[in-house]
Amino acid sequence: MKKRIRKIRLIRTGIQLLFFILAPSLFSTAFAGVRSIFDSVSQGTPVEWNSFLDITGILVLVTILFGRHFCGYACAFGSLGDALYETFSWFWIKVLHRKKKPAYPEKAVYFMQKIKYVILATILLACATGTYGKFQGTSPWDAFSMLRAGRLPGASYKVGVLLLVLIMIGMCTQERFFCQFFCPMGAVFAILPIVPGALLKRDRENCPQKCGACKKRCPAHLDIDGDTSRSGECICCHACQAICPKQNIHTGDA
């Protein structure tokens, strides 16, 4: 099982690194497409298709057909979170000699997952009312994009930089901290209808009694296909599939 876990992690890390280097701005570009729709609403003009909406449309279609694999494998901000969490976990266990990786209680995770929907609604309302421009410089992902491009954010982005630092601290303490709790694009993906065959499923009849390894390993504390109403929270990291001792977790009807 350790070999299977290592193999899946290496494949995922390789894909994440590739996207981080070649397409680090996909997240911000996709959300810019969403914002452009509500900007048109505030201006009372028809929505015109643009290059931002090209990326938004592609990622929405991919998510509907295959699940949130963009979040799990291609989002640079999510990959940054994984790197910080794994680095801090190593320090936590190897240096501080703690037995388990840092993680939030299940109830806290469930509660905090709702915050991203409030953030999404707030941003879209600001766009629709034409007030989004007043918040220029407060976006942590804009600050991240600048740093990733080798540019230092100016003084007008000090709030965005502060929020980015706070988020990075959170990334150290909880796996996929930003993706689960604060990502507005993640909220969009989570409410999309996903083709049933793309969802991870578990063959419960073959599961050992009182196992629960998949749910314990899942950063979102999902019970796989048992949490149908929360299936949108799955970021398709496939950690559950790797940890399952009976290899009972799969996608589609296989």
TrEMBL record:
This is 4Fe-4S binding protein. It comes from the Bacteria. Residues 198-227, 233-254 form the 4Fe-4S ferredoxin-type domain. The chain crosses the membrane at residues 48-67, 117-135, 155-174, 181-200. The keyword Heme does not apply. Pfam families: Fer4_5. SUPFAM superfamilies: 4Fe-4S ferredoxins. Keywords: 4Fe-4S, Electron transport, Iron, Iron-sulfur, Membrane, Metal-binding, Transmembrane, Transmembrane helix, Transport. It comes from Blautia ammoniilytica.
